[in-house]
Amino acid sequence: MPQPKHRKIAVLGYRSVGKSSLTIQFVEGQFVDSYDPTIENTFNKLVSVNGQDFNLQLVDTAGQDEYSIFPQSHSLDIHGYVLVYSVTSQKSFEVVQILHDKLLDMVGKVQVPTVLVGNKKDLHMERMIKPEEGKKLADSWGAAFMESSAKENQTAVEVFKRIIMEMEKADGNTQSEDKKCAVM
Ligand SMILES: Nc1nc2c(ncn2[C@@H]2O[C@H](COP(=O)(O)OP(=O)(O)OP(=O)(O)O)[C@@H](O)[C@H]2O)c(=O)[nH]1
């Protein structure tokens, strides 16, 4: 059995887009309805993907806006990024693009393992951003894209499964399409 791989993932995005809710849904399997702005929280979870164990350290960051100074700690020893906007908020979609630019500047690379997530997809009546817009943005970054709802455990799990796959890809460990990824 291979040794677990330690991977540190930062969850970034505008305020109130559901960064904590997605992280808690993944780690604890529950949806938190109340809104408690995050300063910064770290969660640990051991997951197994295709027979490889991953010791994940998830950094749930404080919501940022276009004026926030991008903390240097968000670029140090981070292996992958989950960039979250809310499909109900145009502002959060604009901010996620600014955050991505700041992130690349800070890490000094043209590409880092990233999943762009359009959260709150369950709020159909309030939707402002179409899935195609998110997909187009993620494609322009060379990142993965998906929509999620922190109310559904399955989509929260999928978010973190996708970032593991992006990190593995960056490490040269590509997965053939026919071999489906399973998170235990
Ligand atoms: N309907 C719905 N509500 C959500 C979803 N995700 C989060 N929420 C709600 O949105 C609010 C903000 O969620 P948080 O997870 O605290 O957002 P955050 O991005 O961590 O916020 P900051 O810590 O301020 O950056 C809470 O009331 C959540 O219950 C979702 O997928 N669907």
Automatic annotation (TrEMBL):
PROSITE patterns associated with the record: RAB (PS51419), RAS (PS51421), RHO (PS51420)
Keywords: GTP-binding, Hydrolase, Lipoprotein, Magnesium, Membrane, Metal-binding, Methylation, Nucleotide-binding, Prenylation
Compartment(s): Endoplasmic reticulum membrane; Golgi apparatus membrane; Lysosome membrane
Membrane topology: Lipid-anchor
Catalyses which reaction(s): GTP + H2O = GDP + phosphate + H(+)
GO biological process entries: signal transduction
Gene3D superfamilies per the UniProt record, alphabetical: P-loop containing nucleotide triphosphate hydrolases
InterPro entries in the cross-refs: P-loop_NTPase (IPR027417), Small_GTP-bd (IPR005225), Small_GTPase (IPR001806), Small_GTPase_Ras-type (IPR020849)
UniProt keyword Metal-binding present: yes
SMART domains reported in the protein's UniProt record: RAB, RAS, RHO
Pfam hit, one: Ras
Record's GO cellular component terms: endoplasmic reticulum membrane; Golgi membrane; lysosomal membrane; plasma membrane
MF-aspect GO terms: GTP binding; GTPase activity; metal ion binding
Main location: endoplasmic reticulum
Complexes and interactors: Associates with the mTORC1 complex (MTOR, MLST8 and RPTOR) in a guanyl nucleotide-independent manner. Interacts with TSC2. Interacts with MCRS1; the interaction maintains RHEB at the lysosome in its active GTP-bound form and prevents its interaction with the mTORC1 complex inhibitor TSC2, ensuring activation of the mTORC1 complex by RHEB. Interacts (when prenylated) with PDE6D; this promotes release from membranes.
Function: Small GTPase that acts as an allosteric activator of the canonical mTORC1 complex, an evolutionarily conserved central nutrient sensor that stimulates anabolic reactions and macromolecule biosynthesis to promote cellular biomass generation and growth.
Protein family per UniProt: Belongs to the small GTPase superfamily. Rheb family.
Protein name: GTP-binding protein Rheb
Organism of derivation: Erpetoichthys calabaricus
